[in-house]
Automatic annotation (TrEMBL):
<keyword id="KW-0378">Hydrolase</keyword>
<keyword id="KW-1133">Transmembrane helix</keyword>
<dbReference type="InterPro" id="IPR003675">
    <property type="entry name" value="Rce1/LyrA-like_dom"/>
</dbReference>
<feature type="transmembrane region" description="Helical">
    <location>
        <begin position="46"/>
        <end position="66"/>
    </location>
</feature>
<keyword id="KW-0256">Endoplasmic reticulum</keyword>
<dbReference type="GO" id="GO:0005789">
    <property type="term" value="C:endoplasmic reticulum membrane"/>
</dbReference>
<dbReference type="GO" id="GO:0071586">
    <property type="term" value="P:CAAX-box protein processing"/>
</dbReference>
<keyword id="KW-0645">Protease</keyword>
<dbReference type="InterPro" id="IPR039731">
    <property type="entry name" value="Rce1"/>
</dbReference>
<dbReference type="GO" id="GO:0004222">
    <property type="term" value="F:metalloendopeptidase activity"/>
</dbReference>
<keyword id="KW-0472">Membrane</keyword>
<feature type="domain" description="CAAX prenyl protease 2/Lysostaphin resistance protein A-like">
    <location>
        <begin position="139"/>
        <end position="218"/>
    </location>
</feature>
<feature type="transmembrane region" description="Helical">
    <location>
        <begin position="6"/>
        <end position="25"/>
    </location>
</feature>
<comment type="similarity">
    <text>Belongs to the peptidase U48 family.</text>
</comment>
<protein>
    <recommendedName>
        <fullName>intramembrane prenyl-peptidase Rce1</fullName>
        <ecNumber>3.4.26.1</ecNumber>
    </recommendedName>
</protein>
<feature type="transmembrane region" description="Helical">
    <location>
        <begin position="96"/>
        <end position="116"/>
    </location>
</feature>
<dbReference type="Pfam" id="PF02517">
    <property type="entry name" value="Rce1-like"/>
</dbReference>
Length: 224
């Protein structure tokens, strides 16, 4: 069993490592905050930085868990990360459909607006090339819909739950505490907002409000 203190300190280190790449590499720092985080150069650099961070986090996770797993460490680690074969077709169907339905409920508001605006797939205002292919396969689309979700889920859910579960924490702890780490990982955006708005007192207030909102929203999203 992993000591609780080590497990939680490791989770904090995962946060620091994940966001470190945003500021270690030159272009990831928004080029001295002169470039927006939406700039292609910044996006590419940050994706490379996060990929490197995920690799480092994986190594740390394996090293720590290997110290506390007695039999078949690699197989156990893979299982703890949530990677397991599902041979039952009905079980596989449930695993795929239930999260999708839950996500649709979460985004019921935006989906309703798209429906009334005729912008859902199959409706008159939806164009597969413009609203589908060009959105999903653009640089921003790859970051928003593929890269960021995969890396965030891997680090802040799979890796953290893998190590916290071995610290004998309850299911409630895993469900409600782990997302707090996810929320903390977004506080650094306040630093960017503060600098981009001119580092004034008003900029500081705006940055603080933005950080609080992001922390609350991302934590709630993590609970979901």
């Amino acid at each position: 069993m992993v000591p609780s203190g080590i497990a939680n300190i490791t989770c904090i280190s995962f946060i620091l490592i994940y966001i470190a790449g945003f500021y270690v590499f030159e272009h990831s720092r928004n080029n001295g905050l002169k470039l927006s985080r939406q700039h292609p150069t910044v996006i590419k650099s940050r994706m490379k930085a996060v990929a490197s961070s995920c690799l480092v986090i994986s190594v740390i996770l394996c090293l720590i868990l290997s110290c506390y797993v007695e039999k078949g460490p690699m197989q156990t680690i893979i299982t703890l990360l949530g990677v397991k074969p599902i041979l039952d077709p009905m079980a596989l169907w449930c695993e795929l459909v239930r999260p999708l339905l839950l996500t649709m409920i979460l985004f019921l508001g935006p989906l309703s607006l798209l429906y009334f605006d005729q912008h859902l797939p199959g409706q008159n205002g939806f164009d597969w090339k413009r609203d589908g292919y060009q959105v999903l396969f653009s640089l921003h689309g790859v970051r928003n819909y593929v890269f960021a979700p995969l890396t965030e889920e891997y680090v802040f859910r799979s890796c953290m739950i893998a190590i916290l579960s071995q610290a004998n924490h309850s299911s409630a702890y895993l469900v409600f505490v782990t997302p707090l780490y996810f929320g903390l990982a977004h506080l650094h955006h306040g630093w960017e907002v503060y600098h981009q708005l001119g580092r004034t007192r008003q900029a500081l207030q705006t940055a603080m409000m933005s950080s609080i909102f992001q922390f609350a929203y991302t934590t709630l999203f993590g609970w979901y």
